[in-house]
Amino acid sequence: MKSNGELQDQYQRYDMIQEELSTSRDRLSKYESSAYDLSNQLSELLLKYKAVANYRDAELARSSSKARKEVKGRGMELIQGAIVFIQTEKARTELESDIKEYESNLLLLDQTHDEDFSEEQERNELTTVLEEKRSRLAALPSSSFNPQQFEEFFTESPHLSESGLDWADPSDPVEPEVPIVPVTIPEEVATPPKIPPSMNSETVVIEDDDGSDSGVPSEQPTTGELGETETAAADPEPAQPELEVPENL
């Protein structure tokens, strides 16, 4: 009887162990299923994270490229404005200098009194050229260039790497630069006023055979002509010897 009771206890323990084992297997199966689900969720999260990271990088690269283009465009705009400003100021300075020169020439005409000099014609020519210069000066375009903005942009702007705009891929397409078209200003060939050569009119005294003086106005040659005359007078032609013919022949 005692051995049968021990056997029954052992059977009961065996059954309990089997139930616990079955329960543990069920739990293990549930845990494996949960682990599989968690692994799938982790894979999905990793894919979403990669997609978000790629989207973030693309947005940052796009923002960086846009910022670079805006900065570059603003810089090119300032540089082109500076070039136009310099060309305009140079042309303005030249025209103002020409205007002052022609105005001084007109003032000099009032002090010129020469019979062979056509003052009216020269005055008309100078006045025409002067009016043309003034009209060209008035037609010069007014530039909106501000040197202070140009200086601040190229001296106080931080580097792109310091401003956080250095993620852009160097292979990003770059828009073609706008060519800088210089301002063409037609040059006017100034015709200087013609000044007639000055002639020194003096009275030359010529002695006649009877010793009387007769005043004949004549134009004295210039220094070059006078030198040539003196040279010719200093070197007279040699006199030809006269042949004597004998009377007996």
From TrEMBL:
- Write down the superkingdom of origin: Eukaryota
UniProt lists compositionally biased (Low complexity) regions at 177-189, 222-242
Instruction: Respond yes or no to whether keyword Coiled coil is given for this record.
Output: yes
Chain positions covered by the region annotation Disordered = 156-249
Which residues are in coiled coils? 85-112
- Give the keywords, sorted: Coiled coil
Task: Spell out the protein name for this chain.
Answer: Uncharacterized protein
